């Protein structure tokens, strides 16, 4: 019996108010999922069923702790079983179709209660008998869809008999395309699920070897997707099946080489935007999953992890199947990069943009991972920016940002990392547009990724690079980055990292923040308090003496900026008097040691300019006049006067006015100081 018009909305309100009692009207839901019902009725029924199941589960979580963790599931099962038993007692085809279609829908809404019912005595026998008693196309289609849903769950998978498996394999060759698609999905789920179950039992992963059956199923799904005549339900089934198969490297290659198919696949969403939301979401999730599988790189292992992995493979040397999986050339970086470029060129970015606006956590997480996979190749990033990927990525992380939580959801880290890659590639205006507010909004997720406990060193490095770019956009951007809670403390810790690039990125960000943020400028010695930033100044001086050229440029640039402050100059001179290193370090910026192993910094114009400016400011900018005898003593020990003379003579290359003027001012100061100091004091 079909649900009368208006019954479902009434049921919704009753079930929300009385979640533990099954209203009489709710019994109409059992019949509301039949294929003969219109899409609108089935969509309403899904909402009602979902609300009822959530209400029952909420009633347990809100009161006393249930006797067992399964209590909510058992309660739901006991609510639905009497109604289904009445349908099971009905030996007509209509009664069976009602039962099978409802149970399939329940798997999608609350799989635990559906699995509970599926495992009851007599249910699997009833389904087995039905394939002989009701051979009609509609009954067979509901059977295959129910088995497809059940095959996705381990507790149900073990109940599916060999007879049912053989029937599914036979149905894969049916003349009915809908039946072929749903049966093929069930076969794929059973195959992959049994492999997963075996892995859990043995503790060893097994390779998914390509079989002729995989090839046949792939061809079946692709033909169904290409066909314009099939309804959305059938196409969604085919996409779901292909999503399962696309975890196999050979299937990935087969799909990626068919550009016409990929273009057709990605255009399905735009052509069917008016479809019911539940079906459209299912279609989008399947397409995004396929794109994710095709574009996923092998994990990047650290040196230590790579060594452990090598030992593990040596221990499994006798397992040829495992060895084949480890060395599969179709999943190397070259093949994945090619597939990702194909995806970007055939329209996947439009699908990802739409997926980023959906509320499903599964869709959003997979979308973020897929964006990150595609962004790994710098050649794809221009196309991503053209498609509005930065806006889509901001949509993906917006719920976390809006929640005002101090940390990101770990699932959002992939989307933020993709956003960071785009922010590194182009200027903030190109990435976020002319609206400065959008740039401000991006600071929070990028800073949260830097601070996140689950973030990898690579994610932190890319966050540093992105924030460096953003902080150069305007003083207000630098101020917002510098004032983000705990961010500077984290950056300063990363200055001590072993990895050269991480130290460099940390120093470059600090340099930009000193230049753009008054608060950070004062933190590093620019305030009136001489003791406030002395320890931090000492760290910056030390970073100006490392081997890496870019790190030295950033650190010496920070010193040049800070030396505009009289108090910072006095603090720097005090460091020189105490440790006798600053003048030597600045001198090496101008005249590096020619015997050094790293020749990349020899006579670098940027270092020379920074060193000269630092000397000039140190001598002429202090709050109080420096003691002449102390200045002369320190300068002579560091050979500062001779270094400046050699510079002006052109021994380190041609000298332009921007360098010559401050160098001459510094040299004149030293000459005047020498005149003032009595000779017997030297």
Automatic annotation (TrEMBL):
One of its GO terms (molecular function) is Hsp90 protein binding. Residues 25-190 form the UNC-45/Cro1/She4 central domain. Gene3D superfamilies: Leucine-rich Repeat Variant. It is found in: Cytoplasm. The keyword Cytoplasm applies. InterPro entries: ARM-like, ARM-type_fold, UCS_central_dom. Keywords: Cytoplasm. The keyword Transmembrane helix does not apply. GO terms for cellular component: cytoplasm. It holds the Pfam family UNC45-central. It comes from the Eukaryota. This is ARM repeat-containing protein.
């Amino acid at each position: 019996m079909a649900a009368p018009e208006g019954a479902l909305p009434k049921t919704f309100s009753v079930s929300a108010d009385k979640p533990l009692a099954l209203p009489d009207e709710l019994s109409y839901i059992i019949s509301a999922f039949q294929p003969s019902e219109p899409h609108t009725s089935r969509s309403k029924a899904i909402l009602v069923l979902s609300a009822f199941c959530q209400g029952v589960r909420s009633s347990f979580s809100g009161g006393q702790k249930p006797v067992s963790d399964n209590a909510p599931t058992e309660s739901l099962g006991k609510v639905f079983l009497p109604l289904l038993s009445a349908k099971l007692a009905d030996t007509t085809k209509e009664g069976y179709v009602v039962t099978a279609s409802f149970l399939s829908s329940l798997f999608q809404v609350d799989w635990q209660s559906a699995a509970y019912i599926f495992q009851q005595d007599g249910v699997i026998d009833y389904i087995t008998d039905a394939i002989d008693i009701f051979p009609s196309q509609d009954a067979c289609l509901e059977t295959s869809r129910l088995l497809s849903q059940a095959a996705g769950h381990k507790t149900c998978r073990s109940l599916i008999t060999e007879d049912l498996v053989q029937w599914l394999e036979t149905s894969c060759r049916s003349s009915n395309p809908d039946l072929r698609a749903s049966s093929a999905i069930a076969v794929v789920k059973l195959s992959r699920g049994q492999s997963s179950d075996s892995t859990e039992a043995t503790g060893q992963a097994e390779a998914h070897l390509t079989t002729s059956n995989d090839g046949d199923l792939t061809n079946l799904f692709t033909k169904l997707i290409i066909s314009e005549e099939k309804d959305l339900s059938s196409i969604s089934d085919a996409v779901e099946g292909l999503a399962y198969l696309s975890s196999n490297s050979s299937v990935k290659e087969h799909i990626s080489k068919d550009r016409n198919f990929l273009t057709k696949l990605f255009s399905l969403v735009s052509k069917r935007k008016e479809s019911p939301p539940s079906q459209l979401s299912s279609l989008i999730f399947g397409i995004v999953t396929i794109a994710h599988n095709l574009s996923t790189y092998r994990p990047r292992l650290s040196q230590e992890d790579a060594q452990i992995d090598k030992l593990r493979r040596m221990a499994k040397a006798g397992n040829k199947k495992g060895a084949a999986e480890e060395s599969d050339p179709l999943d190397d970086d070259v093949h994945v990069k090619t597939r990702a470029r194909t995806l970007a060129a055939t329209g996947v970015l439009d699908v990802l943009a739409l997926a980023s606006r959906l509320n499903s956590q599964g869709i959003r997480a997979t979308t973020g991972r897929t964006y990150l996979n595609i962004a790994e190749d710098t050649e794809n990033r221009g196309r991503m920016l053209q498609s509005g990927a930065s806006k889509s990525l901001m949509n993906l992380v917006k719920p976390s940002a809006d929640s005002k939580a101090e940390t990101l959801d770990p699932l959002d880290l992939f989307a933020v990392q993709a956003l960071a890659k785009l922010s590194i590639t182009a200027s903030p205006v190109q990435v976020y547009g002319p609206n400065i507010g959008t740039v401000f909004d991006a600071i929070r997720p990028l800073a949260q990724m830097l601070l996140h406990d689950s973030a990898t060193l690579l994610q932190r490095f890319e966050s540093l690079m992105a924030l460096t770019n953003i902080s150069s956009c305007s003083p207000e951007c630098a101020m917002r980055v510098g004032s983000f809670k705990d961010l500077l403390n984290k950056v300063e810790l990363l200055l001590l990292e072993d990895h050269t690039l991480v130290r460099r990125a940390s120093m470059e960000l600090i340099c930009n923040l000193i230049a753009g943020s008054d608060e950070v400028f004062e933190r590093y010695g620019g305030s009136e308090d001489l003791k406030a930033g002395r320890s931090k100044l000492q760290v910056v001086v030390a970073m100006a003496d490392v081997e890496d050229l870019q790190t030295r440029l950033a650190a010496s640039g920070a010193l040049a900026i800070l030396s505009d402050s009289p108090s910072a100059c006095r603090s720097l001179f005090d460091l020189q008097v105490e440790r006798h290193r600053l003048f030597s370090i600045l001198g090496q910026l101008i005249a590096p040691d020619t015997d050094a192993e790293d020749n990349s910094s020899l006579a670098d114009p940027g270092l020379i300019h920074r060193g000269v400016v630092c000397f000039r400011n140190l001598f002429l900018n202090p709050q109080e006049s420096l003691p002449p005898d102390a200045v002369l003593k320190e300068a002579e020990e560091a050979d500062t006067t001779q270094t400046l003379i050699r510079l002006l003579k052109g021994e380190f290359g041609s000298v332009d006015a921007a360098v010559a003027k401050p160098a001459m001012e510094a040299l004149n100061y030293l000459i005047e100081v020498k005149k003032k100091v009595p000779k017997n004091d030297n």
